[in-house]
Amino acid sequence: MAAETMFHVLVPDNVHQKAIDILRGRAGISVSAPGKMERNALLEAVGAAHALVIRSGVTADAELISRAPELKAIARAGVGVDNVDLAAATARGIVVMNTPGGNTISTAEYTMGLMLALSRHIAPGHQSLAGGRWDRKAYTGVELKGKTLGIIGLGRIGQAIAKRAQAFEMAIVAHDPYLPPAVAEALGVPLLELHEVYARSDYLTLHALVTDETRSMINASSIARMKAGVRIINAARGALIDSAALAAALSSGVVAGAALDVYEQEPPPGDHPLIGLPNVLHTPHLAASTSDAQATVAVEAAELVLAYLLDGVAENVCNREVLNAKD
Ligand code: MLT
After folding, report:
1. Ligand 1 atom closest to 287 (CA)
2. 18 CA distance to ligand 1 centroid (A)?
3. DSSP character at residue 227
4. Which residues are catalytic?
5. Are 231 and 252 in the same domain?
6. Backbone angles phi, psi at 155, to 5 degrees
7. Contact, 261 vs 287, CB < 8 A?
8. Distance between CA atoms of 243 and 74, rounded to whole angstroms?
9. Which of 42, 43, 208, 273 could share a disulfide with 153, CB 3.0–4.6 Å?
10. Looking at the 3D structure of the chain, how many domains does it have?
11. Residue 260 buriedness (CB in 10 A; 0-12 / 13-18 / 19+)
12. pLDDT tens, position by position, 104-114
């Protein structure tokens, strides 16, 4: 660290170069950005850090926080902070910030892509031809037009999906207990009780945070309330789904298909009950992985860190109690 350095920022994951350049360009800041770090190396390196800029692949748990005596801020280049132990950070007075808007469009576009690919068997069709077959009959699909899309969680991403699905002439219904009804009304999307969304939807897409209320919300009893032949899309968090229950429903055909981008454990274990099922399309947490979104969230995260370290300004704070304690 240079003699005039006041603060050291560690970027222990592959975060867009624009963010690193912004951090390096500021006086008083030193930066270490080695790319994705192994856990042990990270536990070592975090000892000198005043701030971390992370993606979902870095687990900022109580152990890591205990190894970071200088740490003041964690900025998440992305939305979910389920990889950060908020209680441990709060107890240490560490501000945790996120960048909730930057990957909305990428995630919404990806969700539409999953829905289309699942409906039209695009991945198995590709695999089949790559394997030397010319099989048109096995991959007859269904249209989105005229089908009902149920959106669980009508926040930024859910709303962006609603607009895109309307362009595909789908009927949209949603469940979101926190959204002001006027917002849904302006979108032309009826807000319904969860069981009504389940009963009406041909496609169900999940855009909720994992809480005690939503963990495993897609389970045997909720599936029993769904329309037979429903297709389920999850580009939010794996823990929203009880994988064994969904696997059983996919095998029996009660659920016609599922498109999954997220898993309770990432990467998922080799014996994950949903991986490899013929009516499941799975991808490795790619929804926000566009150069556009990654640049936006990384730059935002770098700016959050600089504003906090250099000017004491905290924005997009996920553990607001930490600010009350500081006051
Ligand atoms: C998010 O929470 O922002 C997305 O899941 C993407 C990511 O994990 O980076």
Report:
1. 6
2. 18
3. P
4. 237, 266, 285
5. yes
6. -80, -155
7. yes
8. 31
9. 208
10. 2
11. buried
12. 999 999 999 99
